[in-house]
Recover the amino acids of this structure.
């Protein structure tokens, strides 16, 4: 019985309670700082709206300003709008936390690589919000956009309470898309089931679609989110070179070496 309990604890806590608490603390502090700084760097509405109009003009020059048409099609289905709203809200909270816990328990050897990748991505996102504050499409009603999140939940992203920990003008880059790419790439390489691989490979596409139909991001924001994910991946690989036994990404089937508990 003692051996079974030890085995179960080893599966759930690969590096013990201390490391689990350390990782939770790191992400908790990092996420809190991210939200606080995100709110502090929020610019005024005029500048953010001006930048949004610049993006619209840029997309129109490329003939890719299709977001109002896509949202108009999607809002014909109430069920789709409700699903999109709640998945979008939870993508950076409940879903993100659940996936990180899964990676920590089931793929601990690769977890630290993903953690570093996410940290780099969040830092880049904050720089983008400070340098180029941009209003999301849902604030641009004159272009036909609808704030579906507010319609479904009754909570406005432009409220005073929300702005304490939330910058409503943090549209560039789309960190929803950036995180979806990083986690989708990770899980598509780690899971064994083929259907699951396809699901996670398409996860970034699904999240991008949700950001458009909820009018939270322009397509350009999503492209920049993809760029952030790519830079974060390269940075995590550079960091892995500093501690190859602890911070290296090890997909399914890769040679396994003695694992060194990471920090």
């Amino acid at each position: 019985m003692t051996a079974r309990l030890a085995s179960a604890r080893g599966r759930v806590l690969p590096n013990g309670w201390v490391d689990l608490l350390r990782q939770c603390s790191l992400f908790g502090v990092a996420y809190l700082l991210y939200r606080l700084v995100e709110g502090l760097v929020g610019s005024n509405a005029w500048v953010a709206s001006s930048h949004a109009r610049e993006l619209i003009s840029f997309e129109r020059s490329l003939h890719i300003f299709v977001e109002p048409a896509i949202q108009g099609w999607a809002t014909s289905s109430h069920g789709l709008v409700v699903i999109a709203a709640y998945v979008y809200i939870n993508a950076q909270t409940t879903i993100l936390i659940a996936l990180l816990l899964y990676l920590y328990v089931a793929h601990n050897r690769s977890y630290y690589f993903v953690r570093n990748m996410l940290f780099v991505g969040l830092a880049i996102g904050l720089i983008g919000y400070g340098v180029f504050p941009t209003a999301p499409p849902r604030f641009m009603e004159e272009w036909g956009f609808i704030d579906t999140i507010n319609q479904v939940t009754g909570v406005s992203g432009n409220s005073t309470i929300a702005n304490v920990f939330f910058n409503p003008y943090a549209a560039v880059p789309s960190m929803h898309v950036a995180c979806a790419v990083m986690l989708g790439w990770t899980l598509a390489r780690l899971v064994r089931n083929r259907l699951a691989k396809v699901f996670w490979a398409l996860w970034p596409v699904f999240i991008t679609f949700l950001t458009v139909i909820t009018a939270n991001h322009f397509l350009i924001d999503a492209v920049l989110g993809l760029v952030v994910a790519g830079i974060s991946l390269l940075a995590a690989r550079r960091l892995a070179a500093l501690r190859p036994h602890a911070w290296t990404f090890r997909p399914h089937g890769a040679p396994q070496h003695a694992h060194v508990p990471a920090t």
Notes: Residues 1-9, 158-164 have pLDDT under 50 and may be disordered. The two ends are 31 Å apart (CA to CA).
